Amino acid sequence: MIQWWNSLDTFARIYAFIAIPSTLVLIVQTILLMIGLNDGDDGLDLTDNGITDTPVCMAAKAHLRSDRPLLITLASNDALSANLRNIGTLLSRKSVFFTPMVQDDPVSKPHSLVADFSLVPEALEAAMEGRQLRPIFLK
């Protein structure tokens, strides 16, 4: 092993120094993903429905734990398929609010929803007052 390391030039050593630990972290994450290890029960299980723990998702979950209003401005190509259950679950939460949305192209993208971004300021104001801007689904 030492002989192999000494045979590498400087660039290859730097590459190996980064690549080997990164690969090990990736392998551990893959194993944990396969066995379903998660961060505990926060009362909202969305991991089986197309949501992964990205930094944004983790921040939103932390926000929900403290019962602060959370405004979701959605733009998704699978909102009416894999994520529809998640949207329904979030609609029943008291501190989760949505910017009104519309199906942007029902023929070409039948599962797609996109928020009306011009309504974000009004939806944010309503969320801060604890109310959902209606209607949620626009024509």
- Rg on CA atoms, Å: 21 Å
Biggest sheet: strand arrangement? 2-5-4
Overall geometry: elongated
Q: Spell out the CATH superfamily of the largest domain.
A: Flavin prenyltransferase-like
Could you explain how this protein is built, in words?
The protein has helices at residues 2-7, 10-35, 55-65, 84-91, 120-128, and strands spanning 70-72, 75-76, 96-98, 101-102, 113-115. With 139 residues, it is mainly alpha-helical. The chain has two domains: 2-35, no CATH class; 55-128, Flavin prenyltransferase-like (Rossmann fold, 3-Layer(aba) Sandwich). It has a three-stranded antiparallel β-sheet with strand order 2-5-4, with no helix packed on it. Strands 1-3 form a two-stranded parallel sheet. The termini are far apart.
How is the secondary structure organized here?
Blueprint: H1 2-7, H2 10-35, H3 55-65, E1 70-72, E2 75-76, H4 84-91, E3 96-98, E4 101-102, E5 113-115, H5 120-128
